[in-house]
């Protein structure tokens, strides 16, 4: 506790503003537990950058923690690109303080002689990724906490390729940041180096989204869409993209259309949570809509609901949406003629169905760690290959490579194209998905997340991962575990043969068990939230589409047994 108190007292010096000093002094005087949580560690970069609760402290998002990160990044840019006219672009979302924090970040860059393009108002994360290359910038920043609760904010860093920072840049940038003290931050802005941007970049991004996401789908006049931005940034792009692509029957949930960092109409602005789409689904049922689309606050994740076999609106999970969108893109690429250099990509905790489908098309499948930065890195690492598309289970998808992060704007249009075309052909999005199960195997996935907040929660998550390694799972629902993949040690062990092979992707704190019947279970701490996550995938064959309901019920029962067995239900 002495170390924590000493660290906190350094925030009482004259370098820090009066409001910050008052906030810290109040914690020292009145709230020891809160003081501990705010100062027991420094805010760290995770799978999605730096994300945390706002407030004073080293373990909080504020002008000083972001200023220090920006100073470190400025130092690194000035070192790597000596003599060049450095340029960065900055965007921000609807969260509290995002606009003021973005202005602070811009000021620090400008104080270090770096030209800044700052969006005048909130914009989507995919537009920021696009803008990095469109404006020939050396880096990009978006102020967002994605789908986290209202008290959070965050800072995502993008590199020259438009993708998030990855090795070796990330480690070098973090080392530079860690070498600094807060007093090293240069807050003396150079206004001449800060330029506000908006419509020109908007037009370029929207035009490209329409071009990449449109496939001349039939039946647009007869296709009804309900769209909700969940109080976030996608209201600035998706309605216009759908309009330009020819969709006229788009109903926007007006109660959720106004950007609002309190997210007043939802418990969580996360389309992964069924409750988030409840208002849109209610409207869809009332007007007989075909599809519901909802996006998270920074518009990189999309949730989709479509009519099931009983005509009811059903929310698809990220794996289901990803499979059908990838299948559609693969089919289009096949019709144009494969050149032999194509690939699709997903992550180690996403559905194995992606690989099965890619193999059926004879297209290379690449797998990456969780987080779209790794898929972006693939595009950069293999410039002679053509990225068709790909995604991850957490409701993210990327169409081609013009955006180098998950992109709910273009993906929304793609999903609508698939569904409208299917309806015009006498099918549906849901029926097309079932056909995929017949062709490539019926895969069903389930995600369980356990929230463990604060310093104690972090220790609990750490211990849970240790326990899984020291007391490994031996069987799941009666099927023996035959392969244990430990991404922390980069080893894959075959328990039948004893053979140990090397996993050729970067190390990460992830364990994956595979059983004899193909069941998979993965465990990993979240890189952006105080959670430990468990991912399950089971599969069987589906002989005909007519057998879907019966086989689906059996898989649902299997999932329930597994969760009960592992005490996760």
UniProtKB/TrEMBL annotation:
Keywords: Isomerase, Magnesium, Metal-binding, Phosphoprotein
Keyword DNA-binding: no
Alpha-D-phosphohexomutase alpha/beta/alpha domain boundaries: 43-182, 214-305, 317-436
InterPro entries, per database record: A-D-PHexomutase_a/b/a-I, A-D-PHexomutase_a/b/a-I/II/III, A-D-PHexomutase_a/b/a-II, A-D-PHexomutase_a/b/a-III, A-D-PHexomutase_C_sf, A-D-PHexomutase_CS, Alpha-D-phosphohexomutase_SF
Highest taxon above the source species: Bacteria
GO biological process: carbohydrate metabolic process; purine ribonucleoside salvage
GO molecular-function terms, A-Z: magnesium ion binding; phosphopentomutase activity
PROSITE patterns: PGM_PMM
Family: Belongs to the phosphohexose mutase family.
Name this polypeptide is given: Phosphoglucomutase/phosphomannomutase alpha/beta/alpha domain I
Organism field: Cellulophaga algicola (strain DSM 14237 / IC166 / ACAM 630)
């Amino acid at each position: 506790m002495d170390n924590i108190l000493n660290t906190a007292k350094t925030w009482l010096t004259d370098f820090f503003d009066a409001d910050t000093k008052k906030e810290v002094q109040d914690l020292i005087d009145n709230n020891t537990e809160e003081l501990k949580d705010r100062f027991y560690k420094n805010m760290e970069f995770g799978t999605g950058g730096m994300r945390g609760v706002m407030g004073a402290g080293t373990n909080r998002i504020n002008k000083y923690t972001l200023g220090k990160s920006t100073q470190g990044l400025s130092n690194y840019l000035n070192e790597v690109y000596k003599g060049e006219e450095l340029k960065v672009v900055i965007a921000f979302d609807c969260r509290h303080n995002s606009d003021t924090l973005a202005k602070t970040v811009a000021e620090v860059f400008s104080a270090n002689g770096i030209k800044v393009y700052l969006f005048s108002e909130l914009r989507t994360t995919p537009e920021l990724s696009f803008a990095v290359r469109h404006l020939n910038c050396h880096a990009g920043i978006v102020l967002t906490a994605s789908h986290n609760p209202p008290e959070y904010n965050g800072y995502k860093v993008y590199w020259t390729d438009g993708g998030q920072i990855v090795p070796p840049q990330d480690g070098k940038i973090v080392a530079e940041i860690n070498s600094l003290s807060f007093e090293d931050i240069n807050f003396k802005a150079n206004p001449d180096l800060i330029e506000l941007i908006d419509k020109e970049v908007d037009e370029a991004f929207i035009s490209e989204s329409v071009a990449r996401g449109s496939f001349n789908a039939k039946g647009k006049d007869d296709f009804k869409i309900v769209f909700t931005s969940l109080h976030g940034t996608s209201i600035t792009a998706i309605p216009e993209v759908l309009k330009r692509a020819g969709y006229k029957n788009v109903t926007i949930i007006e109660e959720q259309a106004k950007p609002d960092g309190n997210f007043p109409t939802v418990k969580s602005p996360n389309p992964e949570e069924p409750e988030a789409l409840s208002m849109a689904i209610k409207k869809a049922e009332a007007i007989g809509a075909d599809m519901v689309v909802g996006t998270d606050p920074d518009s990189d994740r999309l949730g989709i609901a479509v009519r099931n076999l009983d005509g009811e609106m059903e929310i698809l999970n990220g794996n289901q949406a990803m499979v059908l969108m990838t299948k559609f893109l693969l089919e289009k690429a096949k019709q144009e003629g494969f050149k032999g250099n194509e690939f699709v990509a997903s992550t180690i905790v996403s559905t194995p169905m992606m690989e099965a489908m890619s193999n059926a098309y004879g297209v290379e499948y690449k797998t990456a760690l969780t987080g779209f930065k790794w898929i972006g890195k693939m595009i950069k690492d293999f410039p002679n290959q053509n990225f068709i598309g790909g995604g991850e289970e957490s409701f993210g998808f990327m169409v081609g490579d013009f955006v180098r992060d998950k992109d709910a704007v273009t993906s929304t249009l793609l999903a609508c194209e698939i569904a409208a075309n299917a309806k015009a052909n006498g099918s549906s999005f849901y029926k097309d998905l079932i056909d995929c199960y017949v062709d490539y195997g019926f895969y069903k996935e389930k995600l369980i997340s356990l929230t463990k907040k604060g310093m104690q929660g972090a220790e609990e998550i750490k211990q849970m991962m240790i326990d899984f390694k020291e007391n490994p799972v031996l069987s799941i629902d009666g099927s023996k575990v035959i392969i244990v993949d430990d991404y922390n040690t980069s080893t894959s062990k075959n328990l039948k043969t004893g053979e140990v092979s090397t996993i050729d992707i970067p190390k990460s704190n992830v364990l994956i068990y595979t059983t004899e019947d193909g069941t998979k279970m993965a465990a990993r701490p979240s890189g952006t939230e105080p959670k430990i996550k468990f991912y399950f995938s089971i599969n069987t064959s589906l002989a005909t589409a007519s057998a879907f309901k019966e086989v689906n019920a059996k898989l649902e029962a299997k999932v329930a047994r597994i969760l009960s067995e592992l005490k996760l239900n």
